[in-house]
Protein: BPI fold-containing family B member 2
Amino acid sequence: MTGVHHGLGLLLVLLPTVSASSTGTVVRINRAALSYVSDVGKVPLQRALKVIVPPLLDWRGEMLQPTRIQILDVRVPHLDLKFIAGFGLRLMATANFTIKVFCIPEPLELVLPMTLTADAHVARGPIRTPVVSISTCSPLFSLASVLNGSNSTSPLLLVLVQKHIKAVLSNKVCLCISNLVQDLNIRLGTLIGLSPVGPESQIRYSVVSEPIITDDYIALDVNAILFLLGQPIVLPLHSASFVLPWPVGTEGVMATVGLSQQLFDCVLLLLQKAGALNLDVTGELNSDDNPLNTSALGRLIPEVARQFPNPMPLVLKVHLGATPVITFHTHNATLRLQPFVEVLATSSNSDFQSLFSLEVAVNLSLQLSVSKVKLRGVTSVLGDIRLMVAASNVGFIDVEQVHTLVGTLFQKPLLDHLNALLGMGIALPSVVNLYYTNSEVFVYEGYVVISSGLFYQR
Ligand SMILES: *[C@@H]1O[C@H](CO)[C@@H](O)[C@H](O)[C@H]1NC(C)=O
Ligand SMILES: *[C@@H]1O[C@H](CO)[C@@H](O)[C@H](O)[C@H]1NC(C)=O
Ligand SMILES: *[C@@H]1O[C@H](CO)[C@@H](O)[C@H](O)[C@H]1NC(C)=O
Ligand SMILES: *[C@@H]1O[C@H](CO)[C@@H](O)[C@H](O)[C@H]1NC(C)=O
Ligand SMILES: *[C@@H]1O[C@H](CO)[C@@H](O)[C@H](O)[C@H]1NC(C)=O
Ligand SMILES: *[C@@H]1O[C@H](CO)[C@@H](O)[C@H](O)[C@H]1NC(C)=O
Structure:
């Protein structure tokens, strides 16, 4: 735990003060998530409530005698959480403490039932993470029942023992809840951790404003900042804030995440600036049947055949000067690329010689999916690839003719490259050990929605 503390402290020091553009992302934690927390939270709560009770001191004769008391077991049969609109959360729990009292002459066992109600305020903390704080905590104890025991226990002692246990637990139970909430806050703090996006680039989420809390959900407005070589990427346009409709996506899921177009624009800008989208297409350079060769091209462009009487390998240098444009229409995500392709030949002295260059336009359909904490993409070509000659060192080029050769040869490597890159995925907002499960991705006009379950790995 202290490790996490130190990590957070370090992060705080490293946090640059950035007022980069908003990349609207909304994370909605729904009621189903509270049921899940109630389920998985019982065991940790039971463990936390198994506190140490100091011995009871009472006068017997002239002596102050200690009576040892031990909590043998804690059962939490009910744990319920619900949202308090505009405020935070209410926790309601019932617990049975099985307590052993080492009284003389024989020990006895008691079961002490408790009902606990605690309210917690959820707010945005100073380091832009969600912070939970207990505002009220009231444990209520019922009469203890004696499990076994003997007639020899004096009723007076029983009364004293119960009074003592209740007084101790009243304090300790609320302290336990506070400690659990402290741990939770440390975990929530990991939201602002940096996650890699691509080569030399990272993403970090932070909470922009106070959470919105209704009876149905708690919504966090989260901003993503993307970094290239440690520098934040700033988008020129976009100032409109992103509003996620309600309900949206699949109902009844634990989490609903809305990702605005701005986020994707920013990620693509980052990948383009990082040069991650550029690639060189080469065939098997030393293979005998490398289809990327000057003799194949020479059949279409006479000047190539003239300059290269012997077949030489070709290289296609694909460069994305313009940022790809992503468009979200209901059920459709498309990516528009305008790569610049330079066609080079290896000459006899193994230098590269530029033959011609092409401006290419291609539309890709983008399928999105979620695995663990990452949003991944797969693309496929939509329609045709459009080619235009930008420059030529080999005279006239019939675009129609080179289309088949260059278009087909360049399409697969480009898709493989993009899919490898998008397959690595972008980290979604998350905290340590929390994963998205059974996620569905919906594409709407201008934004993407992820409806998902959550899984906490202890
Ligand atoms: C807890 O205590 C209550 C009251 O004594 C009892 O009715 C209930 O069965 C107990 N539950 C468990 C799980 O021991
Ligand atoms: C009460 O029960 C516990 C086990 O449940 C046993 O260890 C203890 O001796 C019993 N005490 C009496 C007084 O019967
Ligand atoms: C308690 O005392 C009564 C009578 O004094 C006796 O009948 C009973 O067996 C005792 N019970 C125990 C558990 O010792
Ligand atoms: C050149 O490419 C064509 C197909 O485009 C292929 O049939 C031929 O084997 C290749 N030649 C060499 C020498 O790689
Ligand atoms: C959306 O995608 C479907 C299937 O992929 C396609 O038939 C349709 O034309 C697309 N619509 C738009 C507006 O791109
Ligand atoms: C790509 O899609 C846009 C918008 O639908 C369209 O205007 C353009 O002609 C398409 N380009 C290609 C190469 O298909």
